[in-house]
Amino acid sequence: MSIMAVDRKQVRERPVSESVPGSVACCRCNHVNPRERRYCSQCGSTLWLPCPACSLECAVTESFCGECGKDLEQAIRQRSDEYAGWLAQAETASHARDFQRALELLRPLHKLQDPRFHRFHDQARELSARIEGEFEQARGSVDRACEVAEQRLQCHDYQGARNELESVPEQLRTQRAVELLREACARDDEVRRLSGEVARSVKSGQVADLGIKLERLLVLQPDHEVIRRLAIQFRDRQIRSAQARLADHDYEQALAMLDTIPLSQWNDEVEKLKNQAAELDWLTNDLKQAAIADKTLLTIGERLVGLRPADEEAAQLTQRVRNALAKPPRDPRSMATNLSAPESSVLGVPVSWLALPKNMATSAEAGDALRRWPGSFWVACGLALQGLERADISVNLVSQRQKAAGAKGVLQRFGWTRKKSPRTAWGIDLGSTSLKAVRLTVDGDEREAVTIDRAVLIPHRQDMTRLGDTIQRREAVAATLRTFLDQHPPQDATVSLGLSSLSVLGRFFRLPQVDPKRLADAVAYEVRQQIPLPLEELVWDYHAWPLPKSEGDDEHAWRIGVFAVKEFHVQEVETVCQELNLKLDIVSGNGVALHNLAMFELLGDEPPQARSSSAIALLDVGAEGSALVVSSANSGWFRHLPVGGETVTGNLTRTFNLTRAQAELVKANPARARRLKPLYEAIDPAIRHLVDEIDRSLQQHRRLFPEVQIKHLFGLGGGFQLHGLLRRLRSGR
User: Where among 590, 614, 648 does a domain terminate?
Assistant: First the structure.
């Protein structure tokens, strides 16, 4: 349908043709058409138009709508006034540079097809074209303003960027312009605020946090010459103050002053002074916070005295360590004197180092070995105790007993039909770095003391932690065992060998109301439910603790501990021993061995009533992991922790780009390190991880055994001698 450019007044001034009665004149060309026509026969324009009120089509000559009775002339006048108002509003919005609103007001006028309003349609199109042109120019100016603002921000001219963007009308700002303006305002305000605070600090002489503010100002305005000069002056002032603090041996304050120097103003002098203050502060704090006096701590004290010979406090702290080393420790089980031994620790229980035995006698030769490698033979001792039938748990995981494990009689299990006890037993602990073996003997009846008459440590020729291949590990074990057998043939002694706690699976549960004669069958049934592995692939055995009436339902309640290992692990060890003609009498887990040691060495002297309610925790820190064992008269609980000496070694190799051999050397001899602070900062994450694992494990034990109270934790194993571990366990620092 064509658009007629005819306004309201023009339509009403064209009446029905009087020269031709019953005809209608065309609004566009004045051609006279019969009344029944709908379109002009001359130009094709419509002769019928919609009512502005109800949209019913009416002849152009009609004065009132036949449908709604609306006065067509009045309706057209009202609609014309409305459209004229939209045009005026759009013009006003355009002058206000609100182009979006102006175009929205004109958009309905573009759709007008009624020829009576053609002038509004045409004017709207003309005005829209002009506004769109202006809008395009405005968008270009906004983009240019953003580019200019970005350049000024890059040049750190935040006020200039702010002024540039604020000159853009708010209704024209794009998302990019809004974000840039927000950034410019924030930085400009921050520069103004910091500049005022710096000026006030300099004027008042209070420069405690001046370095932080200068550093931030230099980040915001790195080319500001005044701020840069002020930062240099502040740096020189702090250097002089730090040097004065170092001369007074106040290393902590010296370090704090150097830390306030803006990083952008650091130079070689600041770096050197910072390293010196940090090292001296670390050495001093380590001496003050040390848990025990050992050779490593004495080395730290001597280094501090060597660096600051005029420091009287350093000399006193070092002499304190010397005096402690000259005296035998109060605890015969420890090789080091406690410098701080709180009754509790961050773990909630006292923590001590278990280095030497008290309830087992030692020969002179064995005593030398125990003192040379303190805390390293406890697993072997626990294994040998089982060989002497002095163990609380007597599980045996040799593969020949797999089928008989579930059918074992109660009399045989609890030793009510006993044969003559062995007089000599070897316990062999095949660790990942070395073989540790102990020979225990008894000279008289079972009540006589047990004597450690041999203690042997043989390092593996190859580091087992680096051998992923099973054949290579087997060959390394065979070579070490061959060396041991050549030097110490077992002869008629009972031989017990331990498996890593990582390879031995432990499950603990209760069995209420089970007759002792049917206990083995009940355990065998429960094992199938508890262990998610086919029993045909496992070698397993169990131990039963009769529960006291306070814990059990009746006198036949039991706490069961099941210990299982994959058969190929046992066969692998047995094959090596058979090739070397070494007869294994007992194969057990290292965790079980530690439990037996705890019961004999630490809880053996406890009164019966105390033994039933108190427990001892043992932490064995090894190379590939650590074992946590909690032992009491009525329970045993075992947990493998994935943190050990290898974790520390890995931290050192990554931090300092060392070979593994170099890392092991530095770990064993920290005095070789040029600076100790960065060395122990690299070690500390592993220590914190281990402490967190211990804490979580002890909390889990408290939930499982709320009636059992752990009264002490003893650390052992070669890894427990790591400097700082005992202090962290005690104080959390």
Answer: 590
